[in-house]
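Hi C.,

You asked whether I'd gotten around to modeling the 118-residue construct. I have! Everything is below, sequence then structure, no commentary in between.
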Amino acid sequence: MLIKLHCTDQGGGLDAATLAEDLHRWLLDEPAARRTASVELLSGDGGVGELSGALLTIVQLVLGSGFSAGSLAVSIANWKRTSATQVAVTVEHGDRRITVTGADPAAIEQALNQLSGD
């Protein structure tokens, strides 16, 4: 399952690129993600349906069988709890998109499952 993560500082203090880089490092430190998911940091111009002309930095994951939506949800929740700012994470899968503002792993997992149709 291909997942894209976009980060936004709701307090306005940090830029999206800094947040995405931090989340990318966090996920690479996660043993299960390192072993069974492909985690990449991507930058480029916004395309159709995105902020056209804006420079975007996203974290892209391909989830394997050993790193489920539940594992990703816990990782995102833990990362959000350690953040000094209030971060919104927009999770994209195919043409579906949902933004998570809280840090409850169960709520994040439910959102991820809705995206994948589970």
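If it helps when you're writing up: The domain at 2-116 is CATH 3.30.70 (Alpha-Beta Plaits).

Thanks,
B.
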